[in-house]
Amino acid sequence: MLVGKRVLTIDDSSTIRLFLRAVLSQGDAIIQEADCGEVALHMIRNNPPYDLILLDLILPDLDGIDVLHKVREVDTNVAVVVLTGMGGIKSATAAVREGADGYMEKRDLALGSDHSEFFYALEQAMEHRSGLVAQRQLQQFKTDFYSMITHDLRNPAGSVQLALELLAGGNTEGFSAGQIQLLSLARQAAEQLNNLINDYLDFAKIDAGFLRIEPASAELCALLQSAASLAAVQAESRRQRLTLHLPDAPVYGRVDAQRLKQVFENLISNAIKYTPEGGSIDVALAAADDELTVEVKDTGLGISPSQMSELFAKYHRGTSKSVRTIRGTGLGLYVVKEIVEAHGGTITAHSEGVPGRGSVFTLQIPLRMHAEAPAAHLELVA
To answer: Which of 34, 95, 193, 363 could hold 100 in an S-S bridge, CB 3.0 to 4.6 Å?
Structure first.
């Protein structure tokens, strides 16, 4: 019931207000009344929070939907049930779309001698609102948690990686072969840790709806070459052949270069990671009809048909024994998909699920091209 709940009724009809007071008093609610929108808003702003508001859509001073909007500006936790006269269902459902938690027709208020249906409808509305509030609080908690953990880890992890890079780039003449090997392992571990942290930071932004794309003119062949140059070292260490196939003319488009480079790096790195030593990775860029197409093809482990539907889902990891031994967050392809879709594009994957036959990832995004200086075909043999 409504024992101890603070309820505000907003209706210009004294008869309706009197009726609502009589019924709500049976549930031991604490009831206050307003006969117009301005009075109601003043009470909402200057009194302790209400648990429930019963709002008439037709008021003498303000439109009921406007009152609803102003209520939500002040209090997103209170449950609001809209009251409507005969034939006002369309307006009531519109109010629900605008943030109300339910509606009922005034002619139905008196149904049942014990008003059980009336109280049930109010309780359902309050549960609906409390569910939304809990969901919002959980989402905020998750976002705060990810941000706190990743930001607290990022600075020391970055410092460790920088120190190791400086150490490795300095004079290692006095190091033994074993010490140089340990230094190499430490550098790889630091790089992996920073990649994991960056994945979680991107996920936290995306999950909270904070992913921002800032498009500007960029030459995409050069962008892909830059992403591939970073991966070439990784491929070389695994004796893999990484080849780029680029058009003769440069390809320009309005994209978020930093984010798109992140997509390229992720796809190429994944191909290297899931391809055995001695394999090959081919990356092709093409543009036609104001659309960019990038294809990343490998001779790796492949993806089973059962995994395809969840491939771009958050935290997805392969289930085969060979894949489970490869480290990762399961967030990389999820982040890639969100960035590509934020550009208005699509990304798909194809695989026969046969080791050695590998996989093909294809991304397509709209762009505006301009013909300028030529770009060369590049092959990185590693």
So the answer is: 95
